[in-house]
Amino acid sequence: MQGRLPGTAPRALPVARPGAQRWRRRIAGWVVSGALALLAGPAAADALDDAGVAQERALLQFRLLVLEAGDAGAVARLARQDAMDLLARIADRRGLLEQVTYRPEDLDRLMGICRRAQDANNQLFQLGVPTAPAPGQLHEAFAVRVEEQMERNRLRFQPQLTVTLPFVMRCSAIMPRLLEQVLDTRAKQDLAESERIDPAPMRAGVQRGYLGVLRMIDVPGYGHDLKQALATALADTADATARMLSVPQRQAIAERLDASAAAAEVAQQAHLRKAAAIFHAAPCNALCQM
Questions:
Q1: pLDDT tens digits for 25-79?
Q2: DSSP bridge pairs for 100
Q3: What is the DSSP code (8-state) at residue 100?
């Protein structure tokens, strides 16, 4: 996600519980760098493993489609039904999110699922983006050119982003609950001084991403369907996002949501106001107190 811009009964995944030291390293690595690692799955017969394999294969096929479309100058190919079917498998909300009860020991696997969906977003965001400045081009001019191309892509690929971007938001929103479960079981004094975490980089990224999505609702060039999907996802993920942020950051986002709701389409207003109310009232629990 660009900053300037996460049926059948739920089940748990059969993954062995790591030790305390291992979890401390994982939490620190995720918070500081946002690295998305992926554990190998257990049994191939497991339904989530099957869905994960399908997601990975669909992503590889979609990457190939993006390359072909870019090389041929035929980005309309990415709106065809075969491309949309691949995105639906990559962002399989029911199979990858709703039919699974994730536990803290599944965090690495969940991160892999979110990462692959975000990879699909990035394929769309970055199509045609220059990889290096032209000879003699100033860095500032190059950065402007990159952002302009990415904005064109976001506007061009709205039907695709309507599928993938809310999925990434909801996928990522599962993580705070898992992290809080880990932190709640370990007193702060259990962490050695050398293992204590600076949460500022993580919080800055979370805030930037959430506001980036909100910006897409504010910009007139984006259509109703995408805005509606994003407004709903902003409301659905507000509690999880607020848990990651400091109280001042929460208030800043709440004020932006209030302002956006006042100017939004009627269909989106209730979702944005719901999200704003959550940010105004969210308690400062384990992650917020880090």
A1: 444 444 433 323 333 333 333 666 777 888 999 999 999 999 999 877 788 999 9
A2: 11
A3: B
100 backbone dihedrals φ, ψ, rounded to 5°:
-125, 135
Task: Tell me the CA end-to-end span of the chain in Å, nearest whole number.
Answer: 24
The pTM is what?
0.79
Q: How far is CA 260 from CA 3, 109, 238, 253, 266, in A?
A: 17, 35, 15, 10, 11
Where does residue 189 rank: exposed (0-12), middle (13-18), buried (19+ CB within 10 A)? exposed
pLDDT tens digits for range 96-127? 999 888 988 888 889 999 999 999 999 999 99
Q: From the CA atom positions of the chain, what is the Rg in Å?
A: 20
93-109 burial, b if ≥16 CB within 10 A, otherwise e? eebbbebbebebbbbbb
Cα dist from 26 to 20, 109, 240, whole Å: 10, 12, 19
Whole-number Cα distances in Å, 27 to 6, 35, 204: 17, 10, 16
Place of tokens 């409301």: 235
Burial class (CB in 10 A: 0-12, 13-18, 19+), 18: middle
Tokens 């691949």, residue? Answer: 86
Instruction: Give the residue ranges of DSSP H helices in the chain.
Output: 20-33, 47-72, 81-90, 93, 107-125, 139-156, 158-173, 175-184, 200-218, 224-236, 238-244, 247-263, 266-281
Q: How far apart are CA 71 and CA 31, in angstroms?
A: 37
